[in-house]
Amino acid sequence: MPRMAITVDGVKYEEEVEPRLLLVHLLRERLGKTGTPVGCDTSNCGACTVMLDGKSVKSCSVLAVQADGCDVVTIEGLGANGSMHPMQQAFHEEHALQCGYCTPGMVMAAIDLLRDNPDPSEDAIREGLEGNLCRCTGYCNIVRAVRRGAQEMGQAVRTS
Amino acid sequence: MIPAQFDYVRAGSLGEAVQELAADEDAKVLAGGQSLLPLLRLRLAYPSKLVDVGRLPELTGVHDRGDHVFIGAMATHDEVLRSGVVNADCPLVAQATATVADPAVRHRGTFGGSLAHCDPAGDLPAVVLALEGVFVARSAEGEREIPAAEFFVDYLESALGPGEVLVGVRLPKLGAGWGYHYEKFHRTAQSWATVGVAAAVKRSNGAIEEARIGLTNMGPTPVRARVVETALRGMQMGDDVRRACEEAAAGTSPPSDLHAQPDYRRHLARVLTHRAILHAAGSP
Ligand SMILES: Cc1cc2nc3c(=O)[nH]c(=O)nc-3n(C[C@H](O)[C@H](O)[C@H](O)COP(=O)(O)OP(=O)(O)OC[C@H]3O[C@@H](n4cnc5c(N)ncnc54)[C@H](O)[C@@H]3O)c2cc1C
Ligand code: FES
Ligand code: FES
User: Fold this and answer.
1) Which of B114, B160, B184 to mutate to test the pocket of ligand 1 (most atoms within 8 A of CB)?
2) pLDDT in the model for residue B113
3) What is the mean pLDDT of residues B171-180?
């Protein structure tokens, strides 16, 4: 079996994996990172979105062996010192989740969007999140949360 | 679902990749995996081995080569979108790529993968056909070039042999006077084209000097709307252009699926071709 090394949420792991093991299953079943859910079989829903070397990917559509030597950040790696990331906090404040199944992917995709566009318009948010499906909220509160999270992250940058 | 078992090699060189493919006819190339991995998860494909070409330097990057742009097969959709030379010299490629899937899929999915996959609903095949790109492929026997008109053979079938790796595509720079537009019709965000139209139009003294039109999802492979191209030559902008576009579906055999029936696709081809030509002609 191929051996691989991977950093997840700041911790280095070395694993022997079957080639067919998906990154999301490595995260959930080997490393216990169950914060990243699986929502579909077709790469459509985005629930499994994580950062791979700084860019959003659907972790159900990447083989673990393809991520050999890479750095992964999941929803579980966002908070610091027991407090939530500003984007997580904004989702909480704006009531941007109901069942919460899509939320980890939404938060990761939202943070990815801000790399290019730190102050996105409503349209830019809807475009940026087009790969993430939510079956509960109707998206309005999610869009509001991303705008709020963006503002708070901008503020954090300005005051630091 | 979990894919069936397969072997995996990460090729260290292009030479190694073509050797691996030559040694096993059921082996498949793995690029970004954004089409292949969903197929494996749905157990619609059973390759014996995946040859990962993802880290081969010969296949990466977008290169300005003077009279043409060379897009490496492993250039991701995201890289293509951010490329200065693509936006300056092949804006049609950038326009169509922006409509492909969503940001996360564009971070992994590649230019070469979406062409080699030959999905009739894929957006890039019609674009490369209209721009008359040249495919560069490598096998254990050596390198060969395949003109776009010969590359798309059938539904999910390219002219690449089982032992061949697509290295990249040469796209000629068409130069001054050309305008471009990709018009895609789909019902939900992130979904594939019901029909798409890639148009490049050259104008001189107000009239259309030359038009090139590639149609997405109007048959098992992308097709040129030749009848319209011929009719538009020398035409002034106006009502005649709309009438010429009425022939956009001539000679096509559009599929019937959940999204549309053939007659509706023919209707879309006419309307979208007219829109694409108007936009392309307005922006040289
Ligand atoms: C949710 C979703 C929505 C999508 N929407 C669209 C859309 O709207 N429009 C669109 O055009 N595409 C869409 N795609 C597909 C996307 O463009 C993929 O990136 C593309 O089809 C395949 O590229 P890849 O690099 O991931 O190839 P892979 O999945 O790795 O490979 C695909 C096929 O091509 C072969 N192949 C790949 N690279 C090479 C090579 N260099 N040489 C020889 N053979 C090769 C493989 O063997 C395989 O058969 C979508 C995908 C998803 C998951
Ligand atoms: S589980 Fe990955 S996209 Fe749905
Ligand atoms: S909150 Fe339930 S799917 Fe989004």
Assistant:
1) B114
2) 98
3) 95
Tokens 């959003």 belong to which residue? A56
Q: Does the beta carbon of B33 lie inside 6 Å of ligand 1?
A: yes
Question: How far apart, in whole angstroms, are the C-alpha atoms of residue A29 and residue B147?
Answer: 47
Q: How far is the CA of B274 from the centre of ligand 1 (A)?
A: 29
Q: Chain B contact for A124, CB < 8 A?
A: no
Q: Which of A109, A114, A85 is nearest to A36 (CA)?
A: A109
Q: How far is the CA of A133 from the centre of ligand 2 (A)?
A: 10
**How confident is the model over B118-126, as a mean pLDDT?**
97
Q: Which of B29, B107, B258 best tests the A interface by mutation, with the highest count of A CBs <10 A? A: B107
What are chain B's domains?
A: 7-52 (3.30.43.10), 62-171 (3.30.465.10), 181-280 (3.30.390.50)
Q: What domains sit in chain A, N to C, each tagged with a CATH number?
A: 3-77 (3.10.20.30), 86-159 (1.10.150.120)
Which percentage of chain B shows pLDDT scores above 90? 95
Band of residue A157 on the pLDDT scale cut at 50, 70, 90: low
**Could you tell me if B41 and B1 are in contact, meaning their C-beta atoms sit under 8 angstroms apart?**
yes
Phi then psi dihedrals of residue B279, to 5 deg = -65, -45
pLDDT band at B284 (very low <50, low <70, confident <90, very high): very low
The one-letter amino acid code at B30 reads L
Report the residue of B105, B114, B186 to disrupt the A interface, i.e. the one with the largest count of A CBs within 10 Å: B105
